[in-house]
Amino acid sequence: xRQLRERRSREGARExxxxxVTATGPARVRLDQPRTARPGLLTLPTYDPEAxxxxxxRIARFLGTGRFIVWMTVVIVIWVxxxxxxxxxxxxxxxxxxxxxxxLSLQASYAAPLxxxxxxxxxxxxxxxxxxxxxxxxxxxxxxxxLTREVAALRHGLGEVATRDFIRSELQSLLKEIDERRxxxxxx
Length: 188
What we know:
Elements lengths: L1 H14 L3 E4 L2 E4 L20 H15 L2 H20 L12 H62 L4 H20 L5
Antiparallel strand pairs: 1-2
Helix pairs in contact: 2-4
């Protein structure tokens, strides 16, 4: 009897699929839905590419200013003065300034990719703006051609309309004709 109860509880556990915990919260294990997280012990952190891109643009914008050059110069002058003018016990980087070289190389190795990322984002914005400008230009050309056709149609239509001078000349010819008939005897 006990064995029968254990078997039934195991079968019931098989029928109820267990819930697994993923990075987005609890989710059922289903074969008809894609996985939300890769199974494994190590999950890599995620980041927002847009926020990272904005941060890289801000850094690149700062690296291209005179303020950055001034601050970098101040830091280097203080570094060199500290390591040459203070007593040997207070110095942390002796004359060839190897640590300063390492710090500047590290700064350059991070600055270059951030500047390239900012330039790529700017290129993408420029490409979108250029496509929008091209579409706007195409619409302006189409509108101009439409208006040109409309003006040509109006000119063509006006060519068939009686002008003031034409009507005046017709009326004068009718008046002459009426005057001629008045002066001539009526014939019935």
